[in-house]
């Protein structure tokens, strides 16, 4: 953040505000961790704050302090709309375009109050008066830590806030293995542990709470994996029938796409998941090296994200989507033939 933005935020927070904090649709660990940490901080500063999520999120994220105070826009629509209409300040975290919040875009678009964006995704839109946007950051949680530090309140970080922030950093860095993890990321993580984040317990709560259904679904996903050695690419498909057969719950496919990158010689991994309720195929893209899945997703699948991690969607069938994906790879043959390191 530059000096002018820091001063602008300080001015906004210099008197009590009614604040709504919003993550993207289908929030992940970084989205929930950052919004709850900011919620704790703003309440400490004496503001009335509410986290409103566009829709539900995985059970393995619902242990964090403050989770029981989150409003679900789909499930608690009237209460959530009332909070939005009464807001004097809006914080948007872990997304940079209002199209990422689904049905919440309409009521937010009617507001005339200031918006503050904190986000690390590429190509932000300009809906926010104050934009803390940095694509080099590992996670929005690392940025929220910096945000609190910029405001001179790093000493106010409680164990509850530290746990939320550590969760988001841990999940968005793939347990600190993705290329976005910097020396500063590790220093922030260490400081959060010093402030009370129990790293071993957090890892257990997020990664070690599998159901039999999820593990069986993982087996199906791995069995479905297609390996295209000529393009150093691997992809997984999961149909609605396969999800239903294993009693799919939100979050069950989290991390499945990364298994493709554990294969020697693979630099591009994708998972296609059928969602009949929304009538789409949800897609996650991952890569290593300089192959930009952000550009690939934006160009071909109405998506985007980061250089090495992005999302997208398709409106055709699962089979047609996978076939179309394979047909695109020839145009990227030179890029996908490069060594990953």
Describe the structure.
Helix 6 runs antiparallel to helix 7 (183-194) and helix 6 crosses helix 8 (199-207). The chain is globular and about 60 Å long. The protein folds into 2 domains: 3-207, Alpha-Beta Complex (inorganic pyrophosphatase (n-terminal core)); 213-336, Diaminopimelate Epimerase, Chain A, domain 1 (Roll). The longest helix is centred in the first third of the chain and has 16 residues, at 29-44. The chain has 13 helices and 12 strands. The chain has helices spanning 3-12, 29-44, 77-86, 105-109, 140-150, 159-172, 183-194, 199-207, 212-223, 240-245, 293-300, 318-328, 333-336, and strands at 18-22, 48-53, 71-72, 89-93, 115-119, 130-133, 226-228, 233-238, 268-275, 280-287, 304-305, 309-314. The protein has a 6-stranded parallel beta sheet with strand order 3-2-1-4-5-6, with helices on both faces. It has a 6-stranded mixed beta sheet with strand order 7-8-9-10-12-11. It has 341 residues and is of the alpha/beta class. Residues 248-319 form the DHHA1 domain. GO terms for molecular function: nucleic acid binding.
């Amino acid at each position: 953040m530059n000096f002018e933005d820091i001063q602008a935020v300080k001015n906004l927070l210099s008197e009590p505000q009614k604040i709504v904090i919003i993550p993207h649709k289908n929030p992940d660990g970084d989205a929930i961790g950052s919004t709850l940490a900011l919620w704790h901080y703003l309440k400490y500063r004496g503001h009335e704050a509410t986290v409103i999520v566009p829709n539900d999120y995985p059970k393995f994220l619902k242990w964090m302090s403050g989770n029981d105070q989150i409003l679900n826009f789909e499930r608690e629509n009237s209460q959530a709309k009332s909070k939005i209409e009464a807001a004097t300040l809006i914080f948007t975290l872990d997304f940079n375009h209002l199209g990422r919040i689904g049905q919440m875009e309409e009521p937010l678009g009617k507001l005339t109050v200031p918006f503050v964006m904190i986000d690390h995704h590429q190509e932000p839109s300009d809906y926010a008066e104050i934009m803390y946007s940095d694509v080099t950051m590992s996670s929005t949680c690392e940025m929220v830590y910096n945000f609190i530090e910029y405001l001179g309140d790093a000493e106010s970080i409680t164990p509850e806030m530290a746990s939320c922030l550590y969760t988001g950093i841990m999940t968005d860095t793939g347990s600190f293995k993705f290329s976005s993890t910097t020396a500063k990321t590790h220093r922030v993580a260490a400081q959060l542990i010093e402030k009370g984040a129990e790293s071993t317990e957090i890892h257990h709560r997020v990664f070690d709470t599998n159901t039999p259904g999820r593990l069986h679904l993982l087996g199906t996903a791995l069995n479905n994996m297609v390996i295209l050695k000529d393009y150093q690419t691997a992809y997984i498909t999961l149909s609605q029938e396969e999800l239903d057969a294993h009693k799919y719950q939100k979050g069950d496919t989290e991390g499945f796409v990364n298994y493709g990158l554990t294969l020697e010689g693979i630099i591009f991994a994708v998972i296609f998941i059928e969602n009949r309720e929304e009538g789409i195929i949800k897609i996650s893209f991952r890569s290593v090296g300089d192959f930009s899945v952000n550009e690939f997703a934006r160009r071909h699948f109405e998506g985007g994200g980061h250089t090495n991690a992005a999302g997208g969607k398709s409106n055709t069938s699962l089979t047609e989507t996978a076939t179309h994906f394979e047909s695109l790879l020839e145009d990227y043959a030179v890029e996908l033939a490069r060594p990953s390191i």
